[in-house]
Structures are given as C-alpha cells and as structure tokens.
Amino acid sequence: MKPFAVSEEKNRKLLELMAAVGMREEDIEERFIRSSGAGGQHVNKSATCVQLKHLPTGIEVKCMRDRSQSINRFLARRELAEKLAEKAGIATSRSSEQDKLRRRKASRNRKSRQKYAPPEASPDDKH
C-alpha cells in the first residue's frame, strides 16, 4: 500500500491497526465520489469523498472531512479499522479515550449525588 499524505508515524500506526484487526487491502472496495459542503469549486469538481466497503463483513465507511482525497483515504481506512476493532472487541486509542470520558462522567455524577443528597435523619430527631 502506498503511504498517504500524512506523517510516517500515522501511516505506520494505521498499518499496525489494520494488521491487528486482520484487515487487508484486498478485502476493501474503494470508491471515490464528489463531496458535499464547504470547499468551494475544488470540492464541486473533484471526487474527494472516499467510500470504503469491507467485503467480508459488509461494513461501509464514507469520509469527506478534508479537501484532499489522499487524506480522506487515510481517514476512511482508520475509521473502518476502528469499527472492525470495536466489532472484534479490540481496544483502540479512540475506544480507550471514550472509556476514560465515561468513567470521568460517572465519577462526577456520583460526587454530585453525594453532595446534594438529602441529609439522613438520625433516630434522635423527633419532628
């Protein structure tokens, strides 16, 4: 696979993630379509949107975040690999980040409930 227009480290990490989930280039069907939204004339006249389909699972991903087709190809592959990892139960950096945020939110809710909980009545009180 030819490297994408991102850093060497990002290319290497993508290849590692693809290998970890068993995703091969032969299993991917790639199509290029015109993007929508901001980007002006460039977006209107070039097919920068990338649509990937993982043939064994049928999972589809569409990416049109950037004006560059090469970067969209990279982002779409990363997104597809993360979806396959999620399906296989393999932890990715994004899933661990989401878990961390979920734990923080639960901790905040717990502290808030403790702070604003009604005071417990003691047996001495006779109101």
Distance between the termini: 78 Å
CATH class descriptor name of the domain at 8-90: Alpha Beta
Helix fraction, binned, reads 40-55%
The tally of beta strands, per DSSP, is 3
**Beta-strand percent range:** 5-15%
- Biggest sheet statistics: 3 strands, antiparallel
- Rg for CA atoms: 23 Å
Q: Counting H and I runs of at least 4 residues, what is the number of helices? A: 4
| Residue-averaged pLDDT | 87
- SS-based class: alpha+beta
CATH architecture of the domain at 8-90: 2-Layer Sandwich
Could you spell the SSE succession in H and E letters? HEHEEHH
Reading side by side through the largest sheet, how are the strands ordered? 1-2-3
As residue ranges, the low-confidence spans are none
InterPro entries: Mito_Transl_Release_Factor (IPR052405), Pep_chain_release_fac_I (IPR000352), Pep_chain_release_fac_I_sf (IPR045853)
Domain Prokaryotic-type class I peptide chain release factors: 21-112
Keywords: Transit peptide
Family: Belongs to the prokaryotic/mitochondrial release factor family.
Please give a structural write-up:
Residues 21-112 form the Prokaryotic-type class I peptide chain release factors domain. Residues 85-127 are annotated as: Disordered. InterPro entries: Mito_Transl_Release_Factor, Pep_chain_release_fac_I, Pep_chain_release_fac_I_sf. It is elongated, with a radius of gyration of 23 Å. The protein has helices at 8-21, 40-45, 69-88, 93-116; strands at 28-33, 49-54, 60-63. With 127 residues, the chain is an alpha+beta fold. Strand 2 (49-54) and strand 3 (60-63) form a beta hairpin. A three-stranded antiparallel β-sheet has the order 1-2-3, with helices on one face. The chain has a domain at 8-90: Double Stranded RNA Binding Domain (2-Layer Sandwich). Helices cover 50% and strands 13% of the residues.
